[in-house]
Specification:
The complex is a heterodimer of chains A (about 290) and B (about 325). Chain A has about 290 residues and is mainly alpha-helical. Helices cover about 75% and strands about 5% of the residues of chain A. Chain A has helices at about 1-30, 40-55, 60-90, 95-115, 140-160, 165-175, 175-180, 185-210, 220-235, 240-260, 265-280; strands spanning about 120, 130, 135, 215. Chain A is globular and about 55 Å long. The two termini of chain A are about 35 Å apart. By secondary structure, chain B is mainly α. Chain B folds into two domains: about 5-230, no CATH class; about 230-305, no CATH class. Chain B is about 65% helix and about 0% strand. Classes of the chains: A mainly alpha (about 290), B mainly alpha (about 325). At the A-B interface, helix 3, helix 4, helix 9 and helix 11 of A face helix 4, helix 10 and helix 12 of B.
Chain lengths: ~290, ~325
């Protein structure tokens, strides 16, 4: 029982990172109706930006900011150079899916050219683990969990209270209708991608810290898990995605603890396949609902 | 003929077989299948466990038979079809578009992780090796002439697959697959059993992939998880797309362009000291860019599929499909 609670604690850390990544992915999906396969590379770029900045400045806060900014920029680039043009030409979701897969391949290989394919060790001293109720968590774990909660809350305020959030919701529900009412859908989608990229870049930074090392393919592996969480929660639905992320994060931590962590991607996909086959609209949606309800 | 040219032609023929198999699934049936390279891997792994004999400790793998190479290749194709059938049964039932792609991506990752981590199957990360010059001692070939022999074998298999695909392309089955790609509902309205048809096409594709894998195993004499990864399939997609999706001649052109040109042109780049992966990575960048640029500006490829019109039939008001 005690061990199960410890695992649950670590599961919450994984789930927090996963929630950040998944909510960013779901934002990208919401404004474009397209699954961005190069989402994982935003995390990877964030991790490299953080690593380089950390080496130069020695400040983890600067590293976090660099990760977020780099993630935002690369996401914006992906939207304006690849996804946006395809959507404006009326390409089918599958075509855009393939194009983003190609982009992900390009980014991975560009990173290999600049940084090599080898694992980069990147650790920040996590501090001494502390007993918190039944859980044993390090200060770093606590920071990760706290930052995930804060970022999510801020995101929900942006989506539900600001004018930009209103435009975002309008575009995600009906792009054409939003345009008719004078919303510049392309700009709103671009801004949403930047916002999602900021979150995903930061997620890449905390993921790298929490894992302790990364390489150019590291984001793609995590994308597979992100996809599982997002689909389980319902693609394009922010609240469902959060719940999906927590669920998948905890399940994976248990599976990793009791079976073997190296099976994690396979395990995640087993969950994904079951969810898609049984409830393709997500576990928590009974009928067609609007995106951010 | 230089050894270099022999290796290019052998690899090109095997790569061409892979692309022709993928063309059935993506070009005709219209499904963006990410599990495809898994069937190539199944073909390669099965060929090896059926030919290299029992494992020597500490290696472990299943079967460990010493069958003749052609028989092993045949059984490898059957195994690839079996795995393809299982994935197809699950993924083709209701899923289309990106949901199909996501589930097949999952399937191939499961295959990859199991092949790499579950040691008793194919010796995990070490993989399998030891298939030296299959069929070579039948004809008493030395090393040099064996290379020519295997090149010839690969080219003959490529031509056979090509001729077979040519026939399929114009057959009722090939046409039926295309109608599914264009308009599934219309095909169903005309009484087509969509699921069965798609499944047939999918298993056929997997069989061709398995055949390519069997040849690949014979050529490399070994196979392990670092020799393949699920993203390998991107190169194949680029080849099919550049040449002309659905058009056999186009696929061959695509293979020539992507396989030979991209792979070989970057071979002459200077090595950067200390960065052995740079040329490979550059190749990856080119392949990814070609894929995106062609999708955007010439999705029909260099040699587009010709639209067939049935002149004997009554005018068809729904022939205007994407």
């Amino acid at each position: 029982m005690h061990e199960a609670l410890l695992t649950l604690g670590f599961g919450i850390v994984t789930a927090s990172i996963l929630a950040l990544s998944a909510v960013a992915f779901t934002l990208e999906y919401a404004v474009t109706n397209v699954a961005n396969v190069s989402h994982g590379e935003i995390l990877t770029v964030g991790a490299y930006a953080a690593y380089v900045t950390h080496q130069r400045t020695g400040s983890p806060i600067a590293a976090a900011i660099a990760a977020a900014v780099a993630g935002g920029l690369i996401a914006l680039l992906l939207h304006s150079a690849v996804i946006g043009p395809f959507i404006r030409r009326g390409a089918t979701p599958t075509v855009v899916f393939i194009a983003t897969l190609g982009s992900s391949f390009v980014i991975q290989n560009v990173l290999v050219i600049f940084f090599g394919a080898a694992n980069v060790a990147y650790t920040i001293d996590p501090g001494a683990p502390q007993q918190l109720g039944p859980f044993l968590l390090s200060p770093l774990d606590l920071e990760i969990i706290a930052s995930a909660v804060v970022i999510t809350l801020v995101l929900f305020v942006i989506i539900s209270r600001t004018k930009f959030g209103k435009a975002l919701r309008a575009v995600s529900q009906n792009r054409e209708l939003a345009r008719v009412t004078g919303i510049d859908a392309t700009r709103v989608a671009g801004a949403t991608f930047f916002l999602a990229g900021v979150i995903a870049g930061y997620a890449g930074f905390v993921l790298a810290e929490s894992v302790g090392s990364f390489n150019p393919y590291f984001g793609f592996g995590f994308f597979l898990i992100t996809l599982t969480a997002s689909v389980a929660g319902g693609l394009g639905r922010a609240v469902g995605t959060m719940v999906g992320a927590v669920m998948v994060g905890i399940i994976l931590e248990f599976a990793g603890g009791y079976i073997s962590a190296s099976y994690n991607p396979a395990f995640a996909f087993a969950i994904l396949a079951v969810v898609i086959l049984i409830r393709p609209r997500g576990l928590f949606t009974s009928a067609r609902r609007t995106v951010f309800e | 003929m230089s050894a270099y040219l022999v290796s290019v032609l052998t690899e090109g023929a095997i790569f061409g077989i892979m692309a022709l198999g993928l063309n059935v699934i993506w070009g005709w049936s219209g499904d963006f299948d990410l599990a495809y390279y898994g069937y190539v891997a199944v073909g390669a792994y099965m060929t090896l466990v059926l030919t290299i004999g029992p494992p020597l400790s500490p290696a472990e793998y299943i079967l460990g038979l010493q069958l003749a190479y052609p028989l092993a290749a045949l059984l490898a194709v059957v195994s690839a079809m079996g795995v393809g059938l299982v994935v197809g049964l699950i993924a083709l039932r209701h899923l289309r578009g990106i949901y199909f792609s996501i589930v097949t991506l999952g399937a191939v990752y499961v295959m990859y992780v199991i092949a790499g981590q579950f040691v008793p199957l194919f010796d995990g990360y070490n993989g399998l090796s030891g298939l030296f010059d299959p069929m070579g001692d039948w004809f008493g070939l030395d090393y040099q002439s064996y290379q020519y022999f295997f090149m010839g074998l690969s080219l003959v298999m490529f031509v056979l697959v090509l001729l077979f695909m040519w026939r399929i392309s114009g057959s009722r089955f090939g046409m039926a697959l295309r109608t599914l790609r264009e308009d599934e509902r219309a095909a169903a309205a005309f009484g087509r059993d969509i699921y069965r048809l798609k499944l047939k096409g999918y298993v056929l594709g997997a069989a061709v992939g398995g055949l390519a894998g069997a040849l690949f195993a014979g050529y490399l004499s070994a196979f392990n998880p670092s020799a393949w990864s699920p993203v390998e399939v991107i190169v194949l997609y680029a080849a099919v797309l550049v040449g002309g999706r659905g058009n056999i001649a186009g696929v061959v052109v695509g293979v020539l362009i992507m396989g030979v040109l991209v792979q070989e042109s970057t071979r002459f780049l200077p090595e950067v000291p200390g960065h052995p992966q740079i040329v490979l990575a550059l190749r990856g960048v080119i392949i990814g860019l070609v894929l995106v640029v062609f999708l955007r500006f010439r999705p029909q490829g260099l040699l587009p599929e010709r639209r067939r019109i049935d002149h004997h039939a009554a005018p068809d008001p729904t022939s205007e499909a994407a």
